[in-house]
Amino acid sequence: MRIPATVFASALTLASAYTLYAESAVTRRLEVQVQARERHRDRLENDIAVLKAEHAYLARASRIEPAAKAIGMRVPAAGEHVPLSVLTSGGPVEPIVKSR
User: Fold this and answer.
1) Could you tell me the residue ranges of all domains in the chain?
2) Got the DSSP string for 15-47?
3) Pairwise CA distance, residues 27 & 30, whole Å
4) CA 38 to CA 43: how far, in whole Å?
5) 22-67: per-residue pLDDT in tens?
6) What is the pLDDT of residue 91?
7) With contact defined as beta carbons under 8 Å apart, do 56 and 41 qualify?
C-alpha cells in the first residue's frame, strides 16, 4: 500500500509542478501585454497633451488676427450678421456682408 501511495503522490506532485509552470508562463505573458498597453496609453496621453498645447497656440487671437487682416477679413459691423434662427427657419436671408 505504501508504494502505490508514494507513486500517486509523486505523480500528483509532478502534475502540480507542470500546472504551476504553465500558469506562470500565462501570467508572464499577460503581464507583458498589460505593460505594453500601459506604455501605449502613456504615449497616447502624451500625444493628447501635445495636441491640446498646439490647439491652444493655434487658437490664440493674437496669432490669428494679423493673418485674417492680411487676407482682408475684418470684424463685422452692426447689422452685418444673420441670426442663426433666420438661417434655420427657411425664410429669406439677407446677404451676410452688405455691398457698399
Assistant:
1) 2-89
2) HHHHHHHHHHHHHHHHHHHHHHHHHHHHHHHHH
3) 5
4) 9
5) 999 999 999 999 999 999 999 999 999 999 999 999 989 888 889 8
6) 62
7) no
